[in-house]
Amino acid sequence: MEITNIGVLGAGVMGSGIAQVTATGGFDTVCYDPDADAVERAREHTTTGRYGIDRGVERKKLTPEEGAAAKERLRFTDSFEEVAAVDLVVEAVPERIDLKIKVFRDLDAAAPPGTILASNSSGFPVAAIAAATERSGQVLTWHWASPAPVMKLAELVRGPDTTDETVAAVVDVATRCGKNPRRRGRFPDQLGLRGEPCVLRGHPRGPAGGPGGRG
Ligand SMILES: NC(=O)c1ccc[n+]([C@@H]2O[C@H](COP(=O)([O-])OP(=O)(O)OC[C@H]3O[C@@H](n4cnc5c(N)ncnc54)[C@H](O)[C@@H]3O)[C@@H](O)[C@H]2O)c1
Questions:
Q1: Could you read off the pLDDT of 132-162 as tens digits, one per residue?
Q2: Which of 6, 81, 132, 160 has the largest count of CB atoms under 10 Å?
Q3: Global pTM?
Q4: Which SS3 state, helix, strand or coil, does residue 176 take?
């Protein structure tokens, strides 16, 4: 599946940076947050902020044209339906399992059948989040490092049902966003790759921290 547009759920520290990166990477990106102040802060972070697009242009990481195009591809919304109506949603809401489960349930109901749902959770098992949906094959963790516009780390954690197609599509997006993903096989958790620039780790049939990683 080819991803062309991306939704980011949550415009906080991580969500704003993720949205900036995916827009800069060439994806039409819409970022949703129910808090209007968070959206205003995100607009600032992604443009004039320390790691924002304008600074990227000043530091010659981007040409002025690339910066302008990235800004054009990035928009913010207060419509949940709009953020769900994309090819890939990256969730970056606060780290509370009840909230993650609720937003994944709502995303599953609102998103088109083919949409991939990724969580930036730092620690919750992807299996628990995927179980809130009817599309567990299209759910995975994409854990970003902070600050997202700078750090190359892109940990992809698959759940028990995550399909190879889902992983491949997200690896492609991560690559196009400059995150250097490495594909290491069906159960890459067994390879002990933690700390690589992009790590594809396995599903958490085992306990958190045990074989299969924290999931
Ligand atoms: N901060 C980090 O260094 C870091 C690094 C990696 C992963 N993470 C993970 O990323 C996620 C987000 O962390 P953060 O630091 O960006 O948090 P944050 O508090 O800065 O931002 C969270 C945003 O989500 C918004 N939000 C709340 N409920 C929402 C909802 N129902 N729908 C959409 N948006 C909603 C809030 O208004 C807020 O703007 C967490 O799961 C965290 O564990 C954080």
A1: 999 999 999 998 999 999 999 888 888 889 9
A2: 6
A3: 0.90
A4: helix
